[in-house]
Amino acid sequence: MAANRPVTITITGAGGQIGYALLFRIASGAMLGPETPVRLNLLEIAQGLRSAEGAALELQDSAFPLLAHVEIYDDATAAFDGANHALLVGARPRGPGMERGDLLTANGGIFGPQGTAINAGAADDIRVVAVGNPANTNALIAAAHAPDVPRDRFTALTRLDHNRALGQLAVAVDASVGDIRGLTIWGNHSATQFPDIAYATAAGEPVPERLAARLGGADAATRWLTDEFIPRVAKRGAEIIEVKGSSSVASAASATIDHVRDWVGGTPDGWTSAAIVSDGSYGVPEGLVSSFPVESVDGSWRVVQGLDVDDFARGRIAASVAELEDEREAVRSLGLL
Ligand SMILES: NC(=O)c1ccc[n+]([C@@H]2O[C@H](COP(=O)([O-])OP(=O)(O)OC[C@H]3O[C@@H](n4cnc5c(N)ncnc54)[C@H](O)[C@@H]3O)[C@@H](O)[C@H]2O)c1
Ligand SMILES: O=C(O)C[C@H](O)C(=O)O
């Protein structure tokens, strides 16, 4: 029996692919737990409304005990009114041969008005995650339009990259994903991101040592990291598009659930990765939305401090941060910031 008051979750692009994969898991309790009823506000534009309506019918037919209410909106101000969570998914996906940054012009304009609507009427404890691409810079745009909402409530999804890295590492070191700790995605949700295993452990054993043992030495492990692991994780989105013909859906929804669940519920198993508004940690310019190693403490993301970052890592982080700065300049020049 649910014990808590219903929590309101606004999902943009709810009639799209990721929206469809998200709604049923949220309603089942996978995101906020078995004690928390949810009210779902589905925001769409005209062409997605029928699809959102169909999803709402199916939600009703699923008889989820935790689902308190579903409402469909085509107006952002109404959709975010009273929202405790905003999952900003609605945006165009990229196609084959495109980089996510190519979507800035098409999608950037969506996130300013949504930031304004969040500022106008969302609940005091609003937590926002941008999923629509380019996710980091879209979160930056939304935050810039919500001056009354604390910066630390705006985030972008890099948990999918984190989960992808876990999946690749688990195979490489023959471990279960659940036994791997201390992995970090730094920077942008793009091909420049830096999946960093320097502090990773598998069942308590340092991953760099385990890789060296399995691959025949430290040099071979370094080659595997630079030539296979890092590009495979960073370009996994493109690999999915090439193989499947469209961008990731269920894994993106699952990562979004993981992100919000850990943000609210904590990270007892150690740090994860999320793109948050930089406070200047690790030399990332203040205000950029960049991925860091993060723990959730009392419902807030905190950057894990004190990690030694070697020259190789520093260079990789700097390259991704430079791309974020370029994206910020691009949206400034488009008048979106
Ligand atoms: N950050 C990540 O890890 C990650 C992973 C996968 C996909 N994505 C991105 O998520 C986005 C959505 O992907 P999808 O596969 O669900 O796409 P989709 O085309 O299936 O769905 C997008 C939906 O958004 C709706 N929409 C467009 N503009 C809107 C607006 N202003 N307000 C509300 N809804 C709006 C569309 O009508 C559509 O129904 C894409 O930008 C994609 O690149 C991000
Ligand atoms: O790669 C894409 O365009 C979609 C998404 O960002 C992904 O990482 O799968």
Automatic annotation (TrEMBL):
Q: What does this protein do?
A: Catalyzes the reversible oxidation of malate to oxaloacetate.
Lactate/malate dehydrogenase N-terminal domain location? 8-147
Q: What's in the keyword line of the UniProt record?
A: NAD, Oxidoreductase, Tricarboxylic acid cycle
User: Per its UniProt record, what HAMAP family does this chain match?
Assistant: Malate_dehydrog_2
Per its record, how is this protein called by name?
Malate dehydrogenase
Record: residues binding NAD(+): 13-19, 107, 114, 131-133
Entry EC no(s): 1.1.1.37
What reactions does this protein catalyze?
A: (S)-malate + NAD(+) = oxaloacetate + NADH + H(+)
Q: Which organism is it from?
A: Agromyces humatus
List the NCBIfam families: MalateDH-SF1, PRK05442.1
